[in-house]
Design brief:
The complex is a heterodimer of chains A (about 240) and B (about 475).
Chain A lengths: L2 E12 L2 E12 L3 E5 L6 H7 L8 E6 L2 E2 L7 H6 L1 E4 L11 H11 L5 H14 L15 H13 L5 E5 L7 H16 L3 E5 L3 H7 L2 E6 L2 E6 L1 H6 L4 H11 L2
Parallel strand pairs in A: 3-8, 3-9, 6-7, 7-8
Antiparallel strand pairs in A: 1-2, 1-4, 4-5, 9-10
Helix pairs in contact in A: 3-4, 3-5, 4-5, 5-6
Chain B lengths: L3 H26 L7 E6 L8 E2 L5 E2 L1 H13 L2 E6 L2 H10 L4 E2 L7 H4 L2 E3 L4 E9 L15 E5 L3 H8 L1 H4 L2 E5 L2 H9 L5 E5 H9 L5 E2 L4 E6 L2 E3 L4 H16 L2 H10 L3 H5 L8 H7 L1 H34 L3 H16 L2 H16 L5 H26 L3 H9 L4 H31 L11 H12 L2 H31 L2
Parallel strand pairs in B: 1-4, 1-5, 8-9, 8-10
Antiparallel strand pairs in B: 2-3, 5-13, 6-13, 7-10, 7-11, 7-12
The chains are: A alpha/beta (about 240), B alpha/beta (about 475).
């Protein structure tokens, strides 16, 4: 089995401040990788390098065989295959819910407007928001917005989904719906890389948990290994704090 | 990554188009004609030598003489009435071929102009308001004297300024200068003898307090060493009309009759309605010119401004530098300076004439465009960065993300600024009267110089501007409702 994502010795610095200090990671097809760790550990930055929202200082990133560090790579082509969900949803406020979902496939000539609408309605049904198709994003709750954002990312039929703290900006009672949508996606076999503080989700859904601290991957393994028997002292300390509140 | 260069290419295209407009209009002036064709400038009002008749035609000793000479010597010309000082500079910069504007021949001027045969004797006199009690130049110490920019009279006044100890202030046309003295804003005005006497005869309430000084003569002028053929034609024609009595008839016609014979009587000017009726065609012409300048100015400035504004946010250091430099320069320059630079300054550098209307439009495009660029850049920057990230993460190229996601949100924020800028543009067109465009403000100046109805005419002009601005605001609100909320 070939890896969907291969990262080798990745470094990223803002001026003198190095935030990624040599990351190595492979993600296989259909795998769900959950990245956890304290704030400022570099996990969100790392996730953003995977679709080139952050430029890297050195290292290698291969996604679906495309070399992201090579300037000659058409990044737009690569991104079509990678869906991204943001902490603050970033829905387009001037467009309706359905227009948000179908914008990219129509603009990029992937689908006719009619076909895109059919697909858009399917995806909205999948995330439980078909009745909101004509609403504007401002009329939705946070959880609803995030589910629309997931539908929007899925409309390009990506083979990988990146989630950047998708539930951190939500009211607690909204978190469940979003996690359920993500759980369904994982069950369908989507390759997912998720940055989250939802330890329950990590335990239940992750094939592998990756622990970040100080710009390094300190520990990784199955949820049982990482949560029940962490080896790295930073991981032990972190898990002790978040699991035993 | 390739796509951001498309914006640069588009920018280059617009700049090329603007330059093309200049070149096109410039070549347009040299229309093929059998008879030689010249562009000749004159003062806006200098009765009895040049002033506008009731029908809007320019008449006066200079005008009738030029017409007679052109007919006799077989040349055609386009007349450009503009403030004397701008006209005189325009001849030197190559914008005009010649000037006939009651221009006194002086040794200083002879260094840069070639004059034709002197055609009218003149001297410089000073006049004060009878109410002021001023009867001699000796009473002027510490007082302010009104002068007309760039004239021989102004130069003469400056030469005696130390002796009499007065301060000076400048005006661009004779009528405004007379009124400043009549209203007591200045103590006396210096002006050429025949012109001042003619104005007083026609009802300007001033009293002459000096004998003619610095006797001189008027001459037709071209830039030194240029247009010698035109100068020769003028001299030959002048000699002929002097000999056959045409010249004397012209002089007698204007000096023997009141200005009202040509320009309409004061009675007709006593009511607003009468003024409107009498000057209907001129007002309509002025409004049309103002609206043309405004509408085309807004269209070009918006294209230019949006483009330069977008360049400021594109992730490219060169584009950003170019954009901020353009905004810095054209927002920093006063509109009037920019207009003079393009209309009078540039032709002396490039050697091609620019029609006033093209110079005016380019001025508006650059100046208003720079303001538009500044708020376009600001509006685009105020859109949350997450919007661009979300759009790009879907695989949209930068340009599509800009057009479909960032610009619709940014432009909505900018709509109030656009409406504001449109109103400013309409008002700013009035400044272009200085380069001789007969838009509404210049129409007002010209009508007043004929009928001296300052209050009524400016009141009418002000009302017309307010009506236009109201209509424009309604239009903008309608557009906002129609396009903004969607």
């Amino acid at each position: 089995m070939t890896a969907k994502v291969t990262v080798k010795d990745l470094h990223k610095a803002y001026g003198d401040n190095e935030v990624l200090k040599g990351i190595n990671l492979e993600v296989q097809e259909n795998e769900v990788v959950v990245m956890i760790g304290p704030s400022g550990s570099g996990k969100s930055t790392f996730l953003r390098t995977l679709n080139n929202l952050e430029a890297v200082t050195s290292g290698e990133i291969l996604i679906n065989g495309y070399n992201l560090v090579d300037k000659k790579t058409d990044i737009n082509k690569v991104r079509e295959n990678i869906g991204m969900v943001f902490q603050h949803f970033n829905l387009f406020p001037h467009l309706s819910v359905l227009e948000n979902v179908i914008l990219a496939p129509v603009e990029l000539g992937k689908l006719s407007k009619e076909d895109a609408k059919t697909l858009g309605m399917q995806l909205l049904t999948q995330v439980g928001l078909a009745d909101k198709a004509d609403a504007k994003p401002t009329q939705l709750s946070g959880g609803q917005k995030q589910r629309v954002a997931i539908a929007r990312a899925l409309a390009m039929k990506p083979s990988i989904m990146l989630f950047d703290e998708p539930t951190s900006a939500l009211d607690p009672e909204m978190v469940g719906d979003v996690l359920q949508v993500m759980r369904d996606l994982a069950e369908e076999g989507m390759t997912m890389i998720v940055v989250t503080h939802e330890m329950g989700f990590a335990k239940q859904v992750a094939d592998r948990v990756v622990f970040f601290a100080d710009g390094y991957i300190r520990e990784q393994g199955t949820p049982e290994e990482v949560f029940n028997n962490p080896q790295d002292p930073r991981a032990q300390d972190f898990l002790n704090k978040v699991l035993n509140v | 990554m390739m796509k951001k260069h498309t914006w640069l290419k588009f920018g280059t295209l617009i700049v090329t188009m603007l330059l093309g407009l200049v070149v096109f209009s410039a070549t347009n002036v040299h229309a093929d004609k059998k008879e030689p064709h010249y562009v000749i400038t004159t003062d806006t009002t200098y009765a009895p030598f040049e002033f506008q008749a009731q029908n809007g035609q320019y008449v006066g000793i200079d005008m009738d003489m030029l017409r007679a000479i052109a007919k006799r010597e077989h040349f055609t010309y386009k007349l450009v009435p503009i403030a004397f000082n701008s006209g005189a500079q325009g001849v030197l910069s190559g914008q005009f071929d010649a000037i006939i504007a009651g221009m006194t021949i002086t040794p200083e001027r002879q260094q840069v102009y070639d004059f034709g045969t002197p055609y009218y004797k003149t001297g410089i006199i000073a006049a004060a308001s009878p109410k002021s009690g001023i009867t001699s130049l000796n009473q002027l110490r510490g007082k302010t004297v009104a002068l007309k920019t760039g004239t021989g009279s102004a130069q003469y006044a400056l030469s005696i300024q130390k002796k009499y100890g007065f301060k000076v202030t400048y005006f661009n046309d004779s009528n405004t200068m007379y009124n400043a003295v009549a209203l007591g804003n200045a103590a006396v005005a210096f002006e050429d003898d025949p012109v001042m006497k003619y104005a007083i005869k026609n009802g300007i309430k001033l009293k002459i307090i000096t004998k003619p000084a610095n006797a001189g003569q008027y001459g037709f002028a071209v830039k030194k060493g240029q247009n010698q053929e035109l100068l020769a034609k003028f001299n030959a024609g002048y000699a002929a009309i002097k000999k056959d009595g045409t010249y004397d008839k012209i002089v007698a016609k204007y000096l023997g009759a009141k200005e009202s014979t040509f320009a309409g009587s004061a009675k007709e000017n006593n009511s607003l309605i009468g003024l409107l009726k009498q000057n209907k065609d001129q007002f309509i012409g002025g409004i049309i010119k103002t609206l043309q300048l405004t509408v085309f100015g807004i269209i070009f400035a918006t294209i230019f401004g949006v483009l330069i504004g977008v360049l400021a946010v594109v992730p490219n250091k060169f584009a950003y530098g170019l954009s901020s430099t353009i905004i810095y320069i054209f927002r920093g320059l006063p509109l009037l300076v920019l207009a003079f630079f393009i209309y009078i300054g540039l032709p002396s550098l490039t050697g091609t004439k620019i029609p006033a209307i093209a110079a005016g439009l380019i001025t508006l495009t650059l100046n208003e465009g720079a303001y538009i660029a500044a708020f376009v850049a600001g509006g685009l920057k105020s859109v949350d960065v997450g919007q661009m990230e979300a759009a790009r993460s879907l695989g949209l190229p930068y340009r599509k993300a800009m057009l479909k996601v960032i610009m619709p949100q940014g432009i909505k924020l900018m709509i109030p600024s656009f409406v504001n800028q449109f109103i400013i543009t309409l008002k700013d067109t009035s400044i272009l009267s200085a380069i001789g465009i007969i838009e509404l403000t210049q129409t007002g100046t010209v009508i007043i110089s004929r009928n001296s109805q300052g209050f009524r005419v400016w009141f009418l002009v002000a009302m017309m501007y307010l009506i236009m601005i109201t209509l424009l605001t309604f239009l903008a609100k309608w557009a906002d409702k129609k396009f903004g909320n969607n």
